[in-house]
Amino acid sequence: MKAKFKRDDPEYRFDFAFPELSVDKRSDRAQTAPVELAAVDIPDDAGEILKMLMERQKQLGDFIASRDYAQVWVPAFQSKDLALALDVQIKALPEGQRPKTAQAIDQLVRAAWLLDNYGDIGDKAQIEQAYAAFSRAANEVQSACSRLKTKGQR
Fold first, then answer.
1. For the segment 68-112, what is each residue's pLDDT rounded down to a tens digit?
2. To which H or E segment does residue 134 belong?
3. How far apart (Å, rounded) are the C-alpha atoms in residues 2 and 8?
4. Residues near 55 by Cβ (< 8 Å), separated by ≥ 6?
5. pTM for the complete prediction?
6. Which residues contact 63 (CB under 8 A, 6 or more apart)?
7. Which of 80, 26, 57, 38 is nearest to 135 (CA)?
8. Cα four-point dihedral sign 95, 100, 101, 103
């Protein structure tokens, strides 16, 4: 491998020798993300989206409590997608409620990204702090978006 550490530096050459293929020694559960959970079908109904978002919040809490940080990314990214789907629907809210709701959705998306990032690092304190921010934002989103009409109310 050749690398430069500064733009004007010369290239440094690094040689690495591997006597055999690397073996991932994590548990089988940590090696593979649950494929069925990686993609999420987002319904049109705001009530269903909120329900799914709260389920992901619980999944995150369970993974964090069991220190299964390698799995945090799945419900975190699904939550992000669900929140962004709600963001499209907030135009149905009264105009005065939209900015606060949009802000809560933004906070939730940021917290989901942080959960994914800190889950990769495995830093318990940062994960717990990001989850607390995620939970606050998720609860605010649920409160604000519960005013959106669901299919049954239309």
1. 998 999 999 999 999 988 888 888 888 888 888 899 999 999 999
2. helix 124-145
3. 14
4. none
5. 0.70
6. 69, 71, 72, 75
7. 57
8. positive
CB neighbourhood size of 1 (10 A): 8
Q: Is residue 84 within 8 Å of 141, Cβ to Cβ?
A: no
Residue that has been written with the tokens 């702090």 in this structure: 129
The two tokens of residue 50 are 């909120």
Cα 86 to the chain's mean position, in Å?
15
The residues, ordered by sequence, that sit 6+ positions from 8 with a Cβ below 8 Å of its Cβ are none
List beta partners, residue 3.
12
Residue type, 137: A
Which residues, in sequence order, are CB contacts of 35 under 8 Å at separation 6+?
Answer: none
* The token pair that represents 39 in the structure block: 């993609």
Chain length of the chain: 154
Q: What domains can you pick out in the chain, each with its CATH number? A: 8-153 (1.20.120.290)
**pLDDT mean over 105-121:** 92
Closest CA to 64 of 134, 17, 6, 13: 134
CB atoms within 10 A of CB 94: 7
pLDDT in tens, 3-57: 777 778 788 776 766 677 767 665 544 445 554 546 788 888 888 999 999 999 9
